[in-house]
């Protein structure tokens, strides 16, 4: 197995077609098919299932794919390291939680982009679990996720501290009043969101069984549903500050064990730490120190 083999496996897996992979690799289909067959013979396993409709990757092939991504990242890092003379340039692709994007990043990114116009920031959102996996798989240079994070392939640095609050409709006056809600629903992000897990734990501490959740993809949609009395949610205090000030929702303090959460930035230990990322993280830490970790005053 060599670098070209892994590139071919990756291309075929992405396209589900030998022919389309050949076009991307600037070769002919017979070369791609021959390369895959030779690799399968060498490994003694089938990497793809062939059919009239194309090819489908096998479990063995899926186990190989992460190494293709890592090798591609290593080659990219080597090239980037050779060109990186300390001045931030190029694409900076990072991930973030929806809440961190809404609360912390807009001004940071705007100021960074103005200070370093030769860097093009690309920001993608997701849940803590999906973002961590994207960093591990070398799809992102790093990501802001909810901590703590312990992973053998990642470095995790705390950048912000947030206070989570229980958010309900204005009809709910106290935390204890949540237990009296009939047909209670939680309004949350999709599976993999750490705040969702904390909400389930909080309800359990109140002697309640976590109900079937309603999943939404945006903060605005979640807050609107809670305001309408559809259900309850758990979010950073600063994220719901405006809705609380407008009288749209009620905010309830919760025990520190559930309220205090770190936002950490994770990146691969073996990845190239680019000048663009280093400079961006410096600005993040500076901003975090200037603002402090307590955002209670926003509410």
Structural class: alpha/beta
Q: Kindly identify the CATH topology of the largest domain.
A: D-Maltodextrin-Binding Protein, domain 2
Radius of gyration: 23 Å
Largest sheet data: 7 strands, mixed
Give the mean pLDDT: 88
CATH class identity of the largest domain: Alpha Beta
CATH architecture descriptor text of the largest domain: 3-Layer(aba) Sandwich
| Strand percent estimate | 15-25%
How many strand elements? 11
- Number of helical segments? 12
- Please give the alpha-carbon distance between the first and last residues: 58 Å
Instruction: Give helix % range.
Output: 40-55%
CATH homologous superfamily caption of the largest domain: Periplasmic binding protein-like II
Plain-language structure description:
The chain is of the alpha/beta class and 299 residues long. The protein has 3 domains: 3-81, Arc Repressor Mutant, subunit A (Orthogonal Bundle); 90-160 and 262-298, Periplasmic binding protein-like II (D-Maltodextrin-Binding Protein, domain 2); 162-260, Periplasmic binding protein-like II (D-Maltodextrin-Binding Protein, domain 2, 3-Layer(aba) Sandwich). Helix content is 46%, strand content 21%. The protein has 12 helices and 11 strands. The chain has helices at residues 3-15, 18-24, 29-43, 59-83, 98-103, 105-115, 128-136, 194-205, 219-227, 237-245, 256-259, 275-291, and strands at 48-51, 54-57, 90-96, 119-125, 142-146, 154-168, 187-188, 214-215, 233-236, 250-252, 260-268. The strands form 3 sheets. Strands 3, 4, 5, 6, 9, 10 and 11 form a 7-stranded mixed beta sheet that branches. α2 (18-24) crosses α3. It is globular. Residues 293-299 have low confidence and may be disordered.
């Amino acid at each position: 197995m060599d670098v070209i083999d892994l590139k071919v496996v990756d291309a075929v897996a992405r396209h589900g077609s030998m022919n389309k992979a050949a076009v991307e690799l600037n070769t002919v289909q017979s070369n791609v098919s021959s390369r895959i067959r030779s690799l399968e013979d060498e490994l003694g396993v089938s990497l793809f299932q062939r059919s009239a409709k194309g090819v489908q990757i096998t479990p063995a092939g899926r186990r190989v794919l992460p190494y293709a991504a890592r090798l591609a990242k290593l080659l990219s890092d080597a090239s980037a390291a050779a060109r990186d003379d300390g001045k931030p340039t190029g694409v900076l692709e990072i991930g973030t939680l929806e809440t961190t994007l809404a609360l912390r990043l807009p001004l940071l990114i705007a100021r960074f982009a103005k200070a370093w116009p030769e860097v093009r920031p690309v920001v993608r959102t997701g849940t803590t679990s999906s973002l961590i996996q994207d960093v591990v798989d070398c799809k992102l240079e790093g990501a802001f996720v909810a901590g703590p994070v312990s992973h053998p392939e990642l470095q995790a640095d705390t950048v912000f501290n947030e206070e989570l609050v229980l958010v309900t409709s204005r009809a709910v006056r106290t935390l204890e009043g949540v237990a009296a809600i009939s047909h209670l629903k939680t309004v949350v992000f999709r599976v993999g969101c750490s705040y969702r897990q904390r909400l389930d734990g909080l309800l359990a501490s109140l002697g309640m069984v976590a109900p079937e959740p309603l999943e939404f993809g945006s903060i605005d949609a979640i807050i609107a549903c809670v305001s309408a009395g559809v259900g309850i949610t758990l979010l950073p205090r600063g994220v719901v500050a405006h809705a609380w000030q407008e009288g749209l929702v009620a905010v309830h303090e919760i025990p520190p064990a559930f309220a205090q959460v770190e936002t950490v930035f994770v990146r691969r230990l073996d990845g190239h730490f680019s000048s663009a990322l280093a400079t961006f993280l410096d600005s993040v830490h500076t901003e975090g120190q200037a603002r402090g970790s307590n955002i209670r005053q926003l509410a």
